[in-house]
Amino acid sequence: MPLHKLTITTVLTACLFTGSAFAEDYISLSVGDWNALRSGQAHVFQYGGEYRFSDVGYGIHPILGGFGTAKGGAYGYGGLNWDVALLPNQLYLVPNFAVGAYKEGDGKQMGGALEFRSGIELDYQFPNAHQVGVALNHISNAGIYEHNSGEESVLLTYSIPVSAITKLVGR
User: pTM of the entire structure?
Assistant: First the structure.
C-alpha cells in the first residue's frame, strides 16, 4: 500500500476511536460574516442557532439549525456533525454536512430554495463542557439550479450543554 494511502487510512481509523466532544445534547449559537470569502460582494452579518444531538456512534451527531442574515436571508437545515478529537476533552475538529431550505430576503440570490451546507469547525472545550469555536461553512445548491452562486460564512460559535441550561432554569 502506498504511504499516502496508509497515512490516510491510519488517520481515519484513529478518528473513529477517539472520544466525542458532544457526549450529550448541546445548543450552539453563532455570529459571523455571510459571504466572507467573496471579493467584490457585500459582507453581511449572520447569526444562528443549532441543536446538536448526542453522539449516535463514532462521534457522529445529528444537527438541526438555522440562521438569518442582516439582509433578511434565512436558512433552515438538518444534517450531521462528526467530532474528531485532536486533544480529547479539549480540542475538536468538527466536519459537517447539512441540507436545508434558503429564503433570500433582500440579500444574495442562491439559485433556489434547496441548498447544501458543508463545513469545518474547530472547537475548544472548557472544563465545564462549554465550547467556543470558529467555523467555516460553504452553502450552494450543487448545480441543481441554473444559478449557483454559493457563499462562505466565517462564524464564531459558543456551545452550551443542554444539561447546564436545565440546571440554570431549575429543572
Answer: 0.84
